[in-house]
Amino acid sequence: MTVVATGVMQSIPADLYEEAADIDGASGWQKFWSVTVPMIRPAMVPAIMLGTIWTFNQFAVISFISEGRPFGRTEILITQAFKLVCRSFSWQSWQQFCSPLCGLPQWLSIHAISTNR
Q1: Residue-wise DSSP of 51-109
Q2: Could you report the per-residue pLDDT of 54-102, keeping only the tens digit for each?
Q3: Taking the CB of residue 1, how many other CB atoms lie within 10 A of it?
Q4: Maximum CA extent, the chain
Q5: Which of 4, 30, 6 lies closest to 16 in space, CA to CA?
Q6: Collapsed DSSP state (helix, strand, coil) of residue 111
Q7: Which residues contact 74 (CB under 8 A, 6 or more apart)?
Q8: Integer Cα distance of 50 and 29 in angstroms
Q9: Residue of 31, 55, 84, 115 with fewest CB within 10 Å of its CB?
Q10: What predicted TM-score, i.e. pTM, was given to this entire model?
Q11: Distance of alpha carbon 18 from the chain centroid
């Protein structure tokens, strides 16, 4: 994601900052929100979506290597859901816990696609 952000930031024309924003008298924050964010959004939204999805897919690595140890600091939501089912065999609580987890990446993807057009 850092490589994507660096590449996109370097591709923003300096003219937008030097001419347009400076002539308008924009401050640093105004330049960031009015020039930088709209220019990096088309590249960063897919990168953030992929990063989120890949984080959800790290169950095997965390489960087999550390099992959430030490003190549960390496756990993610998916490993917590797995432990919930394995310890209590409560399928109803597992469904309640995992329903938002499955819906969140879908909602993020739909929202990103609709706002990024």
Answers
A1: HHHHHHT-HHHHHHHTTTTTTTTT--HHHHHHHHHHHH--HHHHHHHHHHHHHHHHHHH
A2: 877 777 777 777 776 777 677 777 777 777 777 777 677 767 777 777 7
A3: 10
A4: 64
A5: 30
A6: helix
A7: 62, 66, 68
A8: 28
A9: 115
A10: 0.58
A11: 31
Q: How many CB atoms lie within 10 A of CB 45?
A: 17
Q: 84-99: string of b/e by CB count within 10 Å (b at 16+)? A: beeeeeeeeebeeebe
Quote the CA–CA distance of 98 and 81 in Å, as a whole number: 7
User: How many whole angstroms from its chain centre is CA 12?
Assistant: 22
Nearest Cα neighbor of 5 from 50, 45, 49 is 45
Tokens linked to 77: 């939501």
**C-beta separation of 52 from 105 below 8 A:** yes
The reported pLDDT for the residue numbered 68 is 64
Report pLDDT digits (tens) over 12-70.
Answer: 888 877 777 777 787 878 888 888 888 888 888 888 888 877 877 777 777 777 776 77
Amino acid at 82: F
Question: Residue 95, CB half-sphere, CA atoms under 13 Å: how many?
Answer: 3
